[in-house]
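Appendix C: a fully annotated inverse folding record. The material below is reproduced so that readers can follow the format used throughout the book. The structure is listed first as tokens, followed by the designed sequence.
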């Protein structure tokens, strides 16, 4: 094992151990899948993180979330979520308003334009999911999910 990875990253020496090889394989595979999703997002003038924020807000539509809740739900939290949301607001895809319950809190909701955009994006994202599904058996998909959950379960950032 490992020859495909060594060729891909142009490494000539053996890996230190199986953990290093598996971790590098995970990085390469995740980056490959993410690039496919990013190519779809770019067609719509979005970044991966923008798509993630829109999906989070669609999940609670017609309600919204404050910025801190969006950050907690993001797949890959960005250090500048405010800037990401600003772009979505400028594009008319997200609306920012003051919370009815707590006037100090700003709420973010997806607009009809944001919902329409996700509706346009969804079939192409599903194409990426089908591409992924064709490469991994159902049994391995379940096993992969269990492995990944074992890696990040209980993780607390420093």
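Designed amino acids, in order:
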């Amino acid at each position: 094992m490992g020859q495909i990875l060594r060729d891909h990253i142009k490494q000539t020496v053996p890996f230190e151990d199986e953990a290093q090889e598996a971790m590098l394989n995970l990085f390469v595979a995740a980056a490959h899948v993410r690039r496919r999703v990013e190519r779809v997002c770019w067609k719509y003038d979005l970044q991966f993180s923008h798509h993630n924020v829109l999906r989070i807000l669609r999940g609670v539509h017609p309600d919204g979330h404050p910025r801190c809740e969006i950050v907690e739900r993001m797949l890959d939290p960005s250090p500048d979520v405010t800037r990401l949301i600003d772009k979505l607001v400028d594009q008319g895809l997200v609306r920012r308003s003051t919370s009815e319950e707590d006037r100090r809190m700003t709420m973010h909701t997806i607009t009809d334009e944001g919902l329409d955009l996700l509706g346009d994006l969804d079939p192409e994202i599903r194409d990426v999911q089908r591409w992924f599904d064709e490469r991994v058996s159902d049994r391995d998909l379940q096993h992969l999910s269990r492995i990944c959950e074992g890696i990040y379960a209980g993780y607390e950032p420093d």
